[in-house]
Amino acid sequence: MVAALVASAIVVIALLWEAATPLFERLSQRIRAARQARAEGIPAYDPGRERRAEQRARELLRSCVNDEEWEMYSDLGFLRMWGGQAGGPEAGWDLGGAPYAYLIYPHKPIIAYLPQTGQLLNEYCVVFPDETKPFGSVRLPDSDDVLAKWMGIKGDEERLITSANLHLPGRQVDPRKVARDLWRLRQWERSRLERAARVASDSVES
User: Taking the complete model, does pTM exceed 0.85, yes or no?
Assistant: First the structure.
């Protein structure tokens, strides 16, 4: 009986050791990397770096976009930009003069759509890697990613759209989510107009 219990304990310990070995290896790698960084004068990794980077990115975004766009992003988590090309973002569109727009999400494709009908047109995938040293990553802070897309469309819409990976709607972003966001955008715009009207009315009365 005792021998069986000892054998079982040995098996359990062996299994636990095998499961814990990868964790110990990763921890050891982190410790070695931190020691090397200190030896090279590189500041150690700060867990709050992403949070501070996002805060700086939000401040930069706020300084670039207009008040409506900033409120939209703050309240809804995305931006709507009007398209600037007469014939649409790519040759072959027959919009009949109808305006089109984009939805810009953090780390998701740019969505082109028709505001009048809500029809989704295309997804445009663009990536802006974070090359900040020494802890750069494949992702910019959310607000920096939105700002990069905003600046790309604002500065050279045609170049950004033609260089992006083009996909049909629904490839990466669920069309049902986009439909809900467009509904949220309409409600947000209606509420914003009503609030502005009340402020104007109060100013007249006073």
Answer: no
